[in-house]
Amino acid sequence: MSNDKLPILVFGATGQQGGSVVNALLRAQWPVRALVRDPATSKSNTLRNAGVELVRGSFADMDVIRAAMKGTHGVFSVLPGSLAEEEEVCLGCMIADLATETGIEHFVYSSGASAGEKPTGVARFDAKSRIEAYVRSLPVTATIVRPMIFMEMLVRPGFGLEEDRYTFFLKLDQSMQLVAVEDIGKFVAAIFADKKRFGGQTLKIASDTVTGRELEVIFSEAAGRPITYMRFPDELLASNPDLGQLAASLDQGPLAKHVDLNAMREINPEIVSFRSWLAASGCSALYW
User: Fold this and answer.
1) Domain-located, residue 240
2) 183-235 confidence digits (pLDDT tens)
3) Would you say residue 76 lies in a domain?
4) In a domain? residue 1
5) Dihedral angle computed from the Cα positions of residues 44, 45, 49 and 50, in that order, rounded to the nearest 10 degrees
6) Neighbouring C-alpha atoms within 13 Å toward the C-beta of 217
């Protein structure tokens, strides 16, 4: 790809979010550079064949990351979800430091919708809040995105679809917002295209809003048979801190604060509804 744009360095390019960002940036005619552990894997080969410049390295290779950032316009930073809190904070701050040091034009950090000023007591949420605060303290133009609950999360095994039911955190008439991973890349590409508009912002991003009752209807349509929706029992939520925290966040925490979907469409006119996503991209992931 030959144009006058400087490349954007994408972390996590072989994963969900990073891969979505790569696809959207390439579609928007941005040259893309990606840090990969092994350039010989099938996912790395797919990136290479799409025109992505691959840099071999890991989060432990500060010199490699520093060199990869040189000559780039921007950096997209997303971290693996399996990290311990202190490790995630250390890596997130290190990447932001290197981006500042190398003088990149625009730094985009993917956080989480449950991040905020108040500690939650959940390590994976609080790590992102700490990284956000650090990024804001640096002399670099940065945008922080907080994706709402991934649509992909809803079709993981364990919610009962194979038994003609769906159990989740919502009450029947309670609503939550979702984002398709494919939409995250489109939002990020729009952000990189307009540093003046989005620089310095912290932006929740979402694709759709659904209630528990609507999930029942949508899953029933997709299955071609009745799927009954129910909320996790209160006793289970009380006995499981992780499940209880997520339910509380949907009830009255950060996930209860919705974004304006019309404003989302102004940034990404192609946002997909959960129904349309499930009929297309989500169909292959369904666990019946």
Assistant:
1) yes
2) 999 999 999 999 999 999 999 999 999 999 999 999 999 989 999 999 999 99
3) yes
4) no
5) -30
6) 9
Q: Is residue 85 part of a domain?
A: yes
Q: Residue ranges of the alpha helices (H) in 84-233?
A: 85-102, 123-137, 151-154, 181-193, 195-198, 212-223
For the chain, where are the alpha helices, taking DSSP H only? 16-27, 42-49, 62-69, 85-102, 123-137, 151-154, 181-193, 195-198, 212-223, 234-239, 241-252, 261-267, 274-279
Task: Tell me: pLDDT of 159 over 50.
Answer: yes
Give the number of other CB atoms < 10 A from CB of residue 240.
Answer: 13
Find all residues with CB under 8 Å of 63, minimum gap 6, and list them. Answer: none
Q: What is the CATH number of the domain that holds 130?
A: 3.40.50.720
Structural domain of 118: 8-285
Give the global pTM.
0.94
How many independent structural domains does the chain possess?
1
